[in-house]
């Protein structure tokens, strides 16, 4: 509880980790607020069904609060957004001159603050993917402020967890995105860094994952614990193995 997990991908697609955490927390009985900026609800629902979770049922019973970013953006841009119960759209900053993510934070806090009848185990904020906010016009400072306030509200006050996906590329000229990624790395309790193979594409090894446990955050003299595995994504699960020990190689 109270942990901030950063999912980082470079030269590959790390969205399989988002699907894992979404199904994992729903099965564990947690209240989940999913800020989905990259794909539609039907996309996540189809993948979740393969993993044995029904997102539609989770929404109906109040366990899952789903923000469909693609739809909200279009509604805002074309003026079709209807204010629900007098509240502005969570992505209101798109149509305003000020890069202010307060409406998005208010949406997250309201979604995860437990009501009297709630019996969920703990609140979880899941964001896929944070880099999209920069593409929509938010400044790096506004994005980092948003994450900071979410950490205070979700991790510190509500004793919940936050899982955030960001795309990164060391060779990229997108300085704003790299600033956000590097800042988040310094504040994360756990980093799952998925990378494409340096040698190129391989049908039996899809990439490698670096698991970094930030022991240094606890102000001890120890170094961070780093483990590196390679993986292969299958239809309903992912196989992990030590580097060079793929079944195809052995």
Automatic annotation (TrEMBL):
Its main location: cytoplasm. Pfam families: ELP6. The keyword S-adenosyl-L-methionine does not apply. One of its GO terms (biological process) is tRNA wobble uridine modification. It is found in: Cytoplasm; Nucleus. Pathway: tRNA modification; 5-methoxycarbonylmethyl-2-thiouridine-tRNA biosynthesis. Keywords: Cytoplasm, Nucleus, tRNA processing. InterPro entries: ELP6 (IPR018627), P-loop_NTPase (IPR027417). GO terms for cellular component: cytoplasm; elongator holoenzyme complex; nucleus. The keyword Cell cycle does not apply. It comes from the Eukaryota. Belongs to the ELP6 family. This is Elongator complex protein 6.
């Amino acid at each position: 509880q109270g942990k901030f997990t950063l999912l980082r991908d470079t030269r590959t697609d790390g969205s399989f980790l988002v699907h894992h955490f979404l199904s994992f927390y729903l099965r564990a009985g947690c209240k989940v607020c999913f800020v989905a900026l990259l794909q539609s609800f039907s996309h996540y629902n189809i993948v979740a069904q393969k993993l044995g979770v029904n997102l539609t049922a989770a929404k109906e019973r109040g366990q899952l609060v789903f923000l469909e970013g693609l739809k909200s953006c279009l509604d805002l841009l074309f003026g079709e957004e209807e204010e629900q119960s007098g509240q502005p759209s969570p992505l209101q900053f798109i149509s305003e001159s000020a890069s202010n993510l307060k409406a998005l934070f208010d949406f997250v806090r309201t979604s995860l603050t437990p009501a009297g009848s709630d019996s969920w185990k703990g609140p979880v904020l899941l964001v896929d993917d944070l880099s999209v906010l920069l593409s929509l016009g938010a400044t790096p400072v506004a994005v980092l402020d948003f994450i900071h306030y979410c950490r205070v509200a979700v991790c510190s006050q509500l004793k919940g967890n936050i899982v955030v996906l960001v795309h990164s590329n060391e060779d990229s000229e997108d300085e704003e995105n790299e600033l956000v990624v590097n800042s988040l790395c310094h504040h994360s309790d756990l980093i799952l860094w998925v990378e494409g193979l340096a040698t190129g594409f391989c049908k039996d090894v899809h990439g490698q994952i670096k698991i970094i446990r930030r022991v240094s955050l606890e102000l001890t003299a120890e170094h961070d614990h780093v483990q590196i595995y390679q993986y292969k994504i299958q239809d309903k699960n992912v196989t992990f193995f030590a580097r060079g020990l793929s079944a195809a190689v052995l």
